[in-house]
Amino acid sequence: MKNPNPKTVSKLEDLPNIGKKMAGYLELADITTPHSLIGQDAFDMYNRLCEKTGKKFDPCVIDVFMSVIDFMEGGEAREWWKFTCERKKTLLDSQEKKST
After folding, report:
1. DSSP labels, 6-37
2. If residue 88 lies in a helix (H) or strand (E), which one and from where to where?
3. CA-based angle 27:30:34, to the nearest 5?
4. Which 8-state DSSP code applies to residue 4?
5. Which positions ≥6 away from 49 have C-beta within 8 Å?
6. Distance CA 68, CA 54 (A)
7. Contact of 42 with 22, CB cutoff 8 Å
8. Which pLDDT value is given to residue 3?
9. Where are the domains of the chain?
10. CA 29, CA 81: separation in Å to the nearest integer?
11. Which string of DSSP letters, residue by residue, matches 45-87?
């Protein structure tokens, strides 16, 4: 896995877990630079991506978005699948709040 410096990374493709295709997804979600990830919400980014393309992507895309947001906000570079449990818990908590 790539291990760039979040303070100096300048291209989306230089981020951990990001290749050419995923960089394109980030751009469709209105993310144009690594630093524009700071303060973003991966679920909102995913929804923007789905709305702009008119299709539903695999929820693992959220995990990738979570991984690069975390990295740019000071976390260590981790594989995207390390965020799957966090995504599932967040979605479950959201569903539980809606049902109460």
Report:
1. TTT--SGGGSTT--HHHHHHHHHTT--SGGGG
2. helix 84-99
3. 65
4. -
5. 25, 28, 29, 57, 61
6. 24
7. no
8. 75
9. 12-99
10. 20
11. HHHHHHHHHTSPPPTHHHHHHHHHHHHHTTPPP--GGGGHHHH
pTM of the predicted structure, to 2 decimals: 0.92
Which amino acid type is present at position 10? S
Residue 57, phi-psi category: left (phi > 0), alpha (psi -120 to 50), beta (remainder): beta
User: What token pair was written down for 82?
Assistant: 């390390």
- Tell me the pLDDT of the chain (100 aa) as tens digits: 667 888 899 999 999 999 999 999 999 999 999 999 999 999 999 999 999 999 999 999 999 999 999 999 999 999 999 999 999 999 898 888 877 6
Is the CB of residue 62 less than 8 Å from the CB of residue 87?
Answer: yes
Q: What is the pLDDT of residue 70?
A: 98
What's the chain's length in residues?
A: 100
Q: How far apart are CA 65 and CA 25, in angstroms?
A: 10
